[in-house]
Specification:
The protein is an alpha/beta fold and 248 residues long. 51% of the residues lie in helices and 17% in strands. The chain is globular, with a radius of gyration of 18 Å. It binds uridine-5'-diphosphate (UDP).
Amino acid sequence: MMSEILGAAIDNLTLAAVVQKTASLLWERRRVFVLTLNPEYLYRAQREPELLELAGRADIVTPDGTGIVWACAVAGTPVPERVTGIDLMLALLAEAARRGWRVYLLGAAPGVADEAADNLRRRFPGLQICGTWHGYFAPQEAEQVLADIVEKRPQLLFVALGAPRQEMWLAENLSRIPAPVVGMGVGGSFDVLAGRVKRAPLWMQKAHIEWLWRLIQEPRRWRRMLVLPKFAWLVLREYKLGRRSKRR
Ligand code: UDP
């Protein structure tokens, strides 16, 4: 089942169910594009239709963040829970360690993906991280990056280039990998996994104020967060103040 808000269809699934769906698509030998949709992306997509079109091309779209979960409820198509990039990545990595899937980490500053890989190998014994590449490669290196990924044959490819660049990269390159693979953008997750940025304590995650923690850790984010009230207003106008009903 899908939920729909502001032109984007979102999978109406729990984290565990998303992992299951991903595994079965991989089992069917598909190339799977996973997009974790956050309010910033969806707000921007209202003005940039190519971003909405990208979300439409994804095989799985998850509600990344409290804002999206709230919006789905307001629109009358609730989703069971928030499924963030980092949580889904960790759940898929646990599955990868169990099933022997190879994992490739593309993105973040030089050195970060390797540090994240070392930590992940300790955290998930048996995990096979088959390759890494930093996210500041020059345009003329792009083919070399793709060639390395093709050669290492990962089943899971995590891309940390920031949104929406990572989604654009996946839309362009995933189909060029001649093997079943799951590709997913994970934003700043490698920085967290490498221990360079700390994730909010669990109580803050549960109180739905992880955004406040991120703001304290990275004050430069404040400008981006201004989008949240604008997004909320857009959702209310669309679904509560009758714009939708007038149109019908
Ligand atoms: N990044 C990258 N190449 C770039 C720009 C960004 O690899 O050209 C990385 C950056 O180092 C960070 C991640 O992409 O690890 C973006 O993190 P952010 O928290 O900004 O992600 P967003 O919330 O924008 O998805």
